[in-house]
Amino acid sequence: MTVKHRGRRVGAAAAVAAFAVFGLQGVAQANPDAPNVGYGYRNHPSAVVCVQKFYNHYLAGPALIATDGKFGRETYAATRRLQQWVNQTYKGQYSLDVDGVVGKRTGDALIGIARKDQWIDPVFVNNCAAALPTTR
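Above: the chain sequence. Below: its structure as tokens.
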């Protein structure tokens, strides 16, 4: 295979991969079938990154946590703090168990809050809506 043909194949493969990851961003729907995120679950890295970025955006201040897609102690603590924050800030609208697990109710709350936030990228929120468990 010539370098020219190999370059076309690599370019085509990259285009297919990019479409698979980014092609449907504008139309991402909530995913009631997405698994929970937390200890003891098969955590998908993109779902964990959503939780980590939501924490960094809403609560971290200067103490950011790594957005590495790995659910560890910091992400567990961040999830619990997010749940506490939602309960305190959005009394009556959301009532979350502070358990460190992003289930459907926590997913609904995070996506609902982020969809109304003008300072957060709507494409990111749509991707998170597809990655996190929700009821809708």
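The CA atoms of residues 72 and 112 lie 25 Å apart.
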